[in-house]
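Re-running Methyltransferase-like protein 13 to confirm reproducibility after the cluster update. Everything else is unchanged from the original entry.
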Amino acid sequence: MLSYVTKFWWHLIVLGLAVYVGIKYVSISQSKTAGSNLEGRKTKDVKEFILKEKRRLLETYCEESSSLCYTVEDHPVLENNELVVKRLLLYKDSDMFFVSTVELETPKVLTWENFNSRQWPVNKLVIHNVYTRLMIAMGFVMEALEFDSLEWQNTLMIGLGGGTQNNFLSAVDFIMVNLTTVELNPLMATMAADWFGLEESRTNNVLVEDGVDFLSGAAQRGEKFKLIILDACGDVSQTRICPANDFMKSGVIKNIARVLEDNGVLTVNIISSRDFAANEEDVLAAYEKHFTTCFLLRYSEVQRLLVCTQREGWNFDKQKKRFMENFRNVDDRFDFGLADIIYREN
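Result of re-run:
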């Protein structure tokens, strides 16, 4: 018997090791599963906690020279069962309109250490508002800007807001945009930097000055821009909120035309509290006096964007097939989802 055991002792050792390893593996697997389940429960608890507070006030800012105040708020929502937190810049006394909205980067694993959304970075590559996406897209749709350009493409934006368009254009490196943004209100620039991820650079400059004065100076200096985005708004109590009254003046529009390149594109945000169509037609009438081609492009049931250029016949009706192909290209590059909207509304 002893000789038999001696002969096969190594079989017993191997068998023992196998049993030990098997028990250890099961133990580790059960531990990992339990840990994973616990982590999953914690993540769910954190998510539910965040979603309970539908509107989270981060800060209130007020103008020194007027009674106008703004609030910065985080709004958590579920989209496709995923937590998404949107940061909004709102008029304090009017929930009807907001200045800007951005999406934050939700942590991959939510914990009680990182649940505070005020610490989350802005996702600069996501734009929720259709009109904001459209104002950028038209530069490419109408071929004023090029993808993968080898040269810097000068772009002017009048009206910063929360910096959504500014963030996007400065974050996408393959479009080579040299962006100048002019903002009248220094408080707006402060809020954009404090809460909306605004970062200036050599090719992303923010100037706090009157857009009217800037246009006058730029025209005198002979400066030219491939794309001009006019998103300057006035009093929210007025029937026509955007563009502001100063940008309806003939002399100002003339200067916009002077600083736009021959093949450049101007996009103008039009926002009204009522009389939508009448206000849009008024803006169109004012601008088409100074441009070879202007047209209104519908993007919702009650809203249209003004687009102008000095190119003859370069409008949506005459170039629909070409422009729709360009919209699809923009969607492929930027994930804007505009082609279906524009085709349906126009």
